[in-house]
């Protein structure tokens, strides 16, 4: 018994008889409908995949052991008329198209495999459905073909088209390509593709910026159409859309290849785009594509029905013999592929010797690896074979299917979900399961579609028109959410024109009023915010310890900001503080050495020592402000500075009051004499310092200073600072110290003209003037600076005010002690001061 598996191609092939003599098969049912000889190279691998699969089935003793499969191959010529005629020939006499009548060799037609597009399959199904003949198509039925649901005998050896739309959206979202174009043919199928895909893209925030519609390639001989193509090439080369989704059915990919060829011939600007193509994509090998530059598709991405390597197919291709009479296609393919003619044809071209190597052909002309379409055909043959095997298997009395070991594998893979009636037998085909030879899980769902996914292919092309298919990812709709889409972008090879695909600015969208959602301006992120993806709806704030980079597309960790000893400013201030401390210590040593001289004894020697010691501590306490703030240093900084400075200013005030009281006590009958002395001066110092110490104690007990991280004052740095805790207490300390200085200044100002050789009042006046000027300028400077410069301002104010007191009060005395010692005597005092009898009595106090 011979079963004919007719195959209706959508592409042009020679219709010469294809004979296979192996396994005792006689020539079957293949007669030409036209004497036109057209190029058979395109999709010739599909024919070979069919032959290879049929041979495997016939040589397999575990399936259809007593039955040999045969087949017929017809061409549809890409038109409905020829498709209908050839389909009628399948169910008619082998010489005449007479439906429902047969004579001669009986053909038991049980299944048809074809075609590569939905239209061809639909035309075939309209006839085959009447006879309940199983039809397996190896392409996807587009949603436009609604009659598929009403054709019970039609099965699809390809995943649902809807899964491919989902995969395209996932791919675009993965690379954040939200400004894309669509390339289709100007027909109903193209419009359906645009409508369905645009809906899904819009729901996911992807904008279709432009839709290019190419006319059917059959009309390219028209000069008007060529001009339109030139305009389209120019438009594609100038558009700012870098990514195009191509509905890669036959007319679309042919039109796209034509456009690229026209652009090259016209020396127009190259169309450098990232092409994202559907699963129908392959490189066509029609004669007018011999000059196609495959480099235009370098780095392209396409979907492909999942396929695996089929063992033995490569060896099968290498063993093809162009002189074989069993294959009516191979001579025409060979002549076209290698550009030669066999000797039995009169031609001036080079003769074919049959020794040419198929593996030397460019991949754009013939692939040695089984394509996804050929893999679907291979699976379709096995599906029919196993369905026949199951149909012919013996049944139990209950009518259940009996499967042998081969039909009961550990992992069932194929399933026919409905009853299929074979012509004449009307045998019911129940549940059929089998292990596909390549090891993949193959089964159909309740919609009679292949339950599978897609591979994501990266096309790497070379100047010699060869190419590599590199699998870079996959889309499996049956996987759990989150694992249904995967891609390894590290192994993707992009076109050399693209360092980065899509917009290279980080921005947020600003919608244009009155325009569609995809029309917007790219607005740079405001200060302090970033957008780490292109075309985000809004920018977002970095974490507190981070700040945006200059491009505002990444957050960078902030550096710590404090006045350290390693910084030049910190080193300078520390050296300056140590220098003034050393000078103060030197002055103190001079005074100790000359402690019995009149100039040291004048105006209370103990107050002078107290002032010098407090000034020394003031210079040293400035070192507490340098370095990373710690809890102990924060507590000591302001309190130690406030108390020590209060002691210094109190000593100055006591000196000033001592001078005033000394001259008031010289008046006859004055009661001020009892206030002149060391005890009163010490009381002033202790009293004034105790008030400041009390303020500091209250401060430390209620809301003390503490180390703090200020994240917001500086955009790119974290300020490590001592938080004052209570700002009121801080300004109370400064205010009280300023009050003491102001009182000292006023008293000294009025006492500056009192006659005395050693009168310090005028020097104290200048020192308090410097002190008040420094601290009055400190307040606005403190409030206007940030970070470590606040600390530097305070240190400078401490050093400047202390140096002012040291310089104004002690530099004249040191000058006399060191350089004018003759002036530092009682005799000199008596000569220059009429009140010397009183002051002489005070020198020892």
Molecular structure report:
The chain is 40% helix and 13% strand. A hairpin with an 8-residue loop joins strand 17 (507-511) and strand 18. The longest helix is centred in the C-terminal third of the chain and has 34 residues, at 631-664. It has 845 residues and is α/β, with parallel strands linked by helices.
Labels describing this entry:
845 residues, alpha/beta, Rossmann fold, 4 domains, eight-stranded mixed β-sheet, three-stranded parallel β-sheet, 20 helices, 25 strands, 40% helix, 13% strand, disordered C terminus
Structure, briefly:
The chain contains 20 helices and 25 strands.
List how many beta strands DSSP finds: 25
Kindly, what is the distance between the CA atoms of the first and last residues, rounded to a whole number of angstroms? 142 Å
Number of structural units classed as domains: 4
CATH class of the largest domain: Mainly Alpha
Mean pLDDT score, rounded? 76
* Strand composition percent: 5-15%
Provide the CATH topology of the largest domain.
Rhopdopsin 7-helix transmembrane proteins
Largest sheet: 8 strands, mixed
Structural class: alpha/beta
Strand order of the largest sheet: 10-9-11-12-13-14-15-16
Uncertain regions spanning at least 5 consecutive residues: 1-40, 285-289, 395-433, 500-505, 834-845
Secondary structure: helix percent: 25-40%
Reported CATH architecture of the largest domain: Up-down Bundle
Sum up the overall morphology in one term. Answer: rod-shaped
Considering the protein shown, what is the CATH homologous superfamily of the largest domain? Answer: Rhodopsin 7-helix transmembrane proteins
**Tally of separate helices:** 20
What integer value in Å does the Rg equal? 50 Å
């Amino acid at each position: 018994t011979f079963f004919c598996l007719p195959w209706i191609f959508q592409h042009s092939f020679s219709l010469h008889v294809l004979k296979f003599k192996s396994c005792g098969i006689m020539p079957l049912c293949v007669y030409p409908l036209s004497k036109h000889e057209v190029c058979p190279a395109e999709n010739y691998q599909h024919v070979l995949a069919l032959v290879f699969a049929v041979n495997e089935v016939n040589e397999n003793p575990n399936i259809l052991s007593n039955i040999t499969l045969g087949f017929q191959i017809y061409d549809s010529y890409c038109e409905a008329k020829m498709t209908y005629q050839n389909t009628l020939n399948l169910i008619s006499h082998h010489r005449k198209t007479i439906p429902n009548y047969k004579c001669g060799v009986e053909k038991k037609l049980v299944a048809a495999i074809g075609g590569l597009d939905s239209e061809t399959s639909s035309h075939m199904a309209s006839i085959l459905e009447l006879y309940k003949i199983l039809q397996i198509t190896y392409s996807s039925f587009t949603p436009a073909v609604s009659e598929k649901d009403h054709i019970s005998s039609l099965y699809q050896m390809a995943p649902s088209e809807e899964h491919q739309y989902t995969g395209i959206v996932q791919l675009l979202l993965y690379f954040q390509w939200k400004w894309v174009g669509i390339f289709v043919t100007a027909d109903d199928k193209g419009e359906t593709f645009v409508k369905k895909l645009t809906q899904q893209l819009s729901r996911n925030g992807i904008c279709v910026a432009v839709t290019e519609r190419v006319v059917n390639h059959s009309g390219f001989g028209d000069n008007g159409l060529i001009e339109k193509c030139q305009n389209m090439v120019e438009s594609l080369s100038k558009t700012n859309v870098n990514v195009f989704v191509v509905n890669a059915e036959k007319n679309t990919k042919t039109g796209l290849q034509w456009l690229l060829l026209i652009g090259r011939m016209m020396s127009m600007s190259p169309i450098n785009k990232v092409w994202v193509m559907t699963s129908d994509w392959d490189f066509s090998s029609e004669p007018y594509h011999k000059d196609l530059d495959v480099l235009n598709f370098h780095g392209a991405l396409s979907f492909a029905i999942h396929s695996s390597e089929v063992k033995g197919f490569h060896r099968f291709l290498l063993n093809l013999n162009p002189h074989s009479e069993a294959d009516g296609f191979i001579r025409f393919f060979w002549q076209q592929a290698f550009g030669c003619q066999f000797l039995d044809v009169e031609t001036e071209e080079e003769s074919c010797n049959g020794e040419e190597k198929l593996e030397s052909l460019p991949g754009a002309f013939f692939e040695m690896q089984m394509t996804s379409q050929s893999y679907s055909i291979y699976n379709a043959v096995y599906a029919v074979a196993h369905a026949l095997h199951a149909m012919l298997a013996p049944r139990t009395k209950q009518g259940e299917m009996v499967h042998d070991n081969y039909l009961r594998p550990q992992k069932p893979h194929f399933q026919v979900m409905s009853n299929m009636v074979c012509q004449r037998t009307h045998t019911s085909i129940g549940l059929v399961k089998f292990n596909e030879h390549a090891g993949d899980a193959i089964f159909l769902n309740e919609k009679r579609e292949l339950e599978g996914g897609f591979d994501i292919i990266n096309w790497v092309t070379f100047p010699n028109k060869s190419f590599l298919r590199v699998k870079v990812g996959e889309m499996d709709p049956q996987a759990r959410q989150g694992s249904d889409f995967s891609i390894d972008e590290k192994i993707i090879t992009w076109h050399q024109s693209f360092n980065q695909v899509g917009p290279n600015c980080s921005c947020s969208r600003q919608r244009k009023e009155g325009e569609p959602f995809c029309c917007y301006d790219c607005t740079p992120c405001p200060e302090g915010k970033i957008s780490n993806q292109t075309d985000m709806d809004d920018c977002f704030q970095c974490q507190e310890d981070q700040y945006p980079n200059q491009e505002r597309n990444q957050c960078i960790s902030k550096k710590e900001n404090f006045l350290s000893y390693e910084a030049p400013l910190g080193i300078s201030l520390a050296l300056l503080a140590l220098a003034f401390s050393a000078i103060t210590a030197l002055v103190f040593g001079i005074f100790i050495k000359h402690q019995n001289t009149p100039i040291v004894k004048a105006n209370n020697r103990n107050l002078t020592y107290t002032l010098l010691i407090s000034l020394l501590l003031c210079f040293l306490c400035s070192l507490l402000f340098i370095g990373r703030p710690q809890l102990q240093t924060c507590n000591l900084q302001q309190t130690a500075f406030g108390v020590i400075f209060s002691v210094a200013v109190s000593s100055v005030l006591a000196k000033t009051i001592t001078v005033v009281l000394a001259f008031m006590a010289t008046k006859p009958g004055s009661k001020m004499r009892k206030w002149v002395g060391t005890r009163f001066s010490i009381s002033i110092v202790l009293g004034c310092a105790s008030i400041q110490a009390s303020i500091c104690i209250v401060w430390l007990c209620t809301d003390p200073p503490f180390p703090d991280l200020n994240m917001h004052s500086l955009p790119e740095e974290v300020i490590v600072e001592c938080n004052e805790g209570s700002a009121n207490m801080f300004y109370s300390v400064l205010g009280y110290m300023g009050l003491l200085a102001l009182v000292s200044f006023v008293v000294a100002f009025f006492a500056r003209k009192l006659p005395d050789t050693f009168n310090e009042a005028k020097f104290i006046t200048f020192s308090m003037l410097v002190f008040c000027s420094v601290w009055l300028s400190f307040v606005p400077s403190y409030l206007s600076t940030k970070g470590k410069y606040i600390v530097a301002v305070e240190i400078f104010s401490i050093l400047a005010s202390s140096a002012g007191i040291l310089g104004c009060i002690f530099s004249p005395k040191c000058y006399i002690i060191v350089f004018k010692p003759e002036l530092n005597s009682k005799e000199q005092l008596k000569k220059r001061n009429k009140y010397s009898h009183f002051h002489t009595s005070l020198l020892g106090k």
